[in-house]
Protein: Mitochondrial carrier
Organism: Rhodofomes roseus
Amino acid sequence: MSDTSSEEVLVIANAPTSTADSIKSFLAGGFGGVAAVLVGHPFDLIKTRLQTAPPGTYTGAVDAVRKTLARDGATGLYRGVVPPLLGVTPIFAVSFWAYDMSKALILAVTPNRKDQTLSISELATAGFLSAVPTTLVTAPVERAKVLLQVQGQGHGGPQYNGMFDVVKHLYKEGGLRSVFRGSAATVARDGPGSAAYFAAYELTKRALTPAGSSSGDLNLGAIIMAGGTAGVAMWSIAIPPDVLKSRIQSAPTGTYSGFMDCARKTIAADGVGALWKGLGPAMARAFPANAATFLGVEASRKLMDKYF
């Protein structure tokens, strides 16, 4: 999943039972994603700037926040917010579909199973597989988002006027290959990240569900805790590939030949510690952003169930 991601989608243990349920899940996921972006984008911007800025630009996350506010004001913390907002609905829609299809695939290849309930490892596998088709939406959205987030760090002034201006320039520069740059790194981040997310959510949800009750009986506090824990689990392993993704997507054409070349050059230039740049903002964002996601999903789903 995208920082907006992919990685921050509500886990539905069972596939939708009707077209109406599928539509409600699609819309609820969109509302949850918007909530996650609005809460988490400032953290994400600081993370991206720490990951991509030349050594010595910032002394840490607090310094990055201070300099961003001094240069652009409070609205500067939302630079690049349009791409993830516009990409939230299709990203979440594809994630829900891909996750359900992956679960169905696992059931199909194990026809003689006695229990139709998927294990934690099987849910994690479904989560990993869901990241592959979702990347078709996530990669170009994050490419535009990263470029908008990092512009203004130097002294050359803004290069792009908005998301569509970014996409136009990228396509003119190198066609679809340029627009989708960083796709492999996105899968490398969101595959394991989504696996950890789905597994952590299910484990937390089961732990917080009293004996004799269903997971649907979770209260608000439990939903927040399960979602927040899932986000922390994802970002605890997703930062290294996220650093490489941000560098690949923000660097001038020709800087890196691929994911492994970026990893090699990053370690050679800045040390292994560079792979963990932005960990603080990412972890600070993980819990509240995922809590917002689940609150948005649950609130909108209840509203739709009440009136439709």
Observations:
- Confidence is low (pLDDT under 50) at residues 5-13.
- The longest helix spans residues 19-52.
- The chain has nine helices and no strands.
- The CA atoms of residues 102 and 126 lie 5 Å apart.
